[in-house]
Design brief:
The protein is α/β, with parallel strands linked by helices. Helices cover about 35% and strands about 15% of the residues. The chain is built from 17 helices and 15 strands. Helix 6 packs across helix 8. This is Acetyl-CoA:oxalate CoA-transferase. Keywords: Transferase. Pfam families: CoA_transf_3. GO terms for molecular function: transferase activity.
Length: about 400
């Protein structure tokens, strides 16, 4: 009898791709983490003394990790390297020669001063996909301006869309521009890697926070151009669908999304016991409800406060109307839904003990991409990488350490 062999899982999509991550803070590291989550070997370069700026942001985990750093650096290896030193920059160039992708977010011209610019590196590695992330387009008059998420949120107009009517500009709760830039950058890098398969040549991917921040405007941006003015603010409500938003039950908030006229009829009849409302011409169609939202919504809010949240959720679900609780961040992370989806990865940190990090959002063939490596300690893999990729021996590594290069 032949023993049945268990089929090995397929390799991760980017297995065999090496990424040299010279970036810091959020947009660049988020981009590199997306590639790492998909299987790339990402080597994160950090200053030997300071490390990434975000090692000093957020809640401390052990001696040099933090909640902020850990959020953008899972599945990476960390090496400490002083790029300002001649030896450090030389080592980085040697690593770039063995890499498929380089990501950097130095100020414009900064990488070139270190000998780490695109044209300098592609001379030794013409297949290199090189991603530069800056605040503003590198071919614009503002190319040398530093880029910051909050500044771009203001300049791109997206702060003007947030909040309730009459409220001043309001930023997103997270650094949305940085995060969008990281994701757009990863998409562009993947496209360049795909094109390289047929051309054999790398590309210079050039991304800017302002460009990506403006993309967040999306349909609101199109509306502003068509109307010639800023769209009105609707807070948690929808600009064109009513009722649709966050509402208060007797014991807490929930989301109710009534997307069409049939749903509104079921909502009134089976959920809130107001079967006469769909017969009222002011509320019969979504267009009419939107025009008369100032009449409908106050009446609806009064009715909803007479129900418990659990009762409303039960009724809404039975009526096939999309709905959900509004949870706090901690409750959402600890929810059964999060656990069942495998979105929280628990690991043992050698300094801080039991810790958690978000798992990658990517799933393929019924399997979530794994957390292969927890967020690294600063310079944790320096010796490993320099030995493995550059064949440095113990004496050479000790000499680099004595000079503060690593």
């Amino acid at each position: 009898m032949h023993q049945q062999q268990t089929a090995l899982p397929p390799p991760l999509p980017l297995t065999g791709v090496r990424v040299l991550d010279l970036s810091r803070v959020l947009a660049g590291p988020m981009c590199a983490m997306a590639l790492a989550d998909l299987g790339a070997d990402v080597i994160k370069v950090e200053h030997p003394a300071r490390g990434d700026d975000t090692r000093d942001w957020g809640v401390r985990i052990g001696t040099r990790n933090t909640s902020y750093f850990n959020s953008a650096n899972r599945n990476k290896r960390s090496i400490s390297l002083d790029l300002q030193s001649e030896d450090g920059a030389k080592l980085a160039r040697a690593l770039a020669a063995q890499s498929d992708v380089v990501i950097q977010n130095f100020k414009v011209g900064g990488a070139e001063k270190l000998g780490l610019g695109y044209e300098q590196l592609r001379a030794d590695n013409p297949r290199l996909v090189y991603c530069s992330i800056s605040g503003y387009a590198r071919f614009s008059p503002e190319a040398e301006r530093p880029g910051y998420d909050l500044v771009v949120q203001g300049e791109s107009g997206v702060m003007a869309t947030n909040g309730e009517a009459g409220q001043g500009p309001l930023k997103f709760g997270v650094a949305a521009v940085d995060m969008f830039t990281g994701m757009y950058s990863a998409q562009a890098i993947l496209a360049a890697l795909f094109a390289r398969q047929s051309t054999g040549q790398g590309r210079h991917v050039q991304m800017a926070l302002y460009d990506c921040g403006l993309m967040i405007a999306s349909y609101y941006g199109m509306e502003a151009l068509l109307k010639g003015e800023d769209p009105p603010k609707f807070g948690n409500a929808h600009p064109s669908i009513v009722p649709y938003g966050v509402f208060d039950a007797a014991d807490g908030p929930l989301v109710i999304t009534v997307g069409n006229n049939g749903q509104f009829q079921r909502f009134c009849r089976d959920v809130i016991d107001r079967p006469e409302w769909p017969e009222d011409e002011r509320f019969a169609t979504n267009t009419a409800r939107s025009a008369n939202r100032d009449i409908l919504l106050p009446a609806l809010r009064e009715v909803l406060r007479g129900f418990s949240r659990a009762d409303l959720l039960r009724r809404l679900t039975a009526a096939q109307i999309p709905c959900g609780e509004v949870l706090g961040m901690f409750d959402a992370l600890q929810s059964t839904r999060t656990a069942q989806a495998g979105l929280l990865h628990r690991y043992e940190d050698s300094e801080a003990g039991a810790q958690s990090v978000l798992a990658p959002p990517y799933a393929m063939d019924g399997q979530r991409m794994p957390v292969r490596r927890p967020p690294p300690h600063m310079g944790e893999h320096t010796r490993e990488v320099l030995t493995e990729l550059l064949a440095l021996d113990d004496g050479q590594i000790a000499a680099l350490q004595s000079r503060g290069v690593i």
